Each structure stands twice: as structure tokens, then as C-alpha cells.
């Protein structure tokens, strides 16, 4: 069964070829088609793109990144309230937790990057006390 994201991606692509989108995003045309189908054709298993991949697709399609994130099942990362304002969040908690996904401009940060960011922020804050 096709996913909401897959249907949306195919609709956004429209008449563009997979190879055209591949050139714009840097993603392989076969991977893009797998995303549209909602499965990795080599294994038959469901496929879930990273936030970084969704950012590339959003940019290529000139489509809101947040909407692709929702369609991709990343609603919990958006942290928006009903007024559309961002909810306050504890940056340290997100960066220090292995269970939280942290993004920087749509790119998923790995654990080492998160630790480095914590070190930099702690240094900056220690200088301003």
C-alpha cells in the first residue's frame, strides 16, 4: 500500500522525469522512485527517508519542508502549537538525548555533531557569565 508521502512526492514531480529530479537533489532516480512507491524495491520493505532527504526534495519541488516532514511521519519533530508558534524546547535535552533527532537546516545531526554543539554552546555560555 502506498504511503501518503509517496503519493505526494509523485504528485509534486508531475511531468518531470526521475532523472531531472535526481540531478536537482543529488539522489538516485531509483531511490526517488522507491520513495514514491513507499517501499525499497530490492527488499520489498517500507522505506522512510531522513529529514535531510526530505529537505532536498522540498527544495527541488519548491514545496514547504514542514509539509513533507508531516507526510513523512516526522510530526513530532515539528513541535508547533495550534497558533503556529514554536513551542519552547530545551536545546540541551534534544542534543544530549540519543532518542531525539536533532536537525540543522533540515540535516539530521549525528551523535558526535550533537556533542560538539553542546561543547560550543557551553563554552559560549561560560564566557557570558
Automatic annotation (TrEMBL):
PROSITE patterns referenced in this protein's UniProt entry, alphabetically = HTH_CROC1
This protein's source sits in the domain of life called Bacteria
Q: Which CDD domains match?
A: HTH_XRE
GO MF term list? DNA binding
Residue span(s) of domain HTH cro/C1-type: 17-68
- Give the protein's recorded name: Helix-turn-helix transcriptional regulator
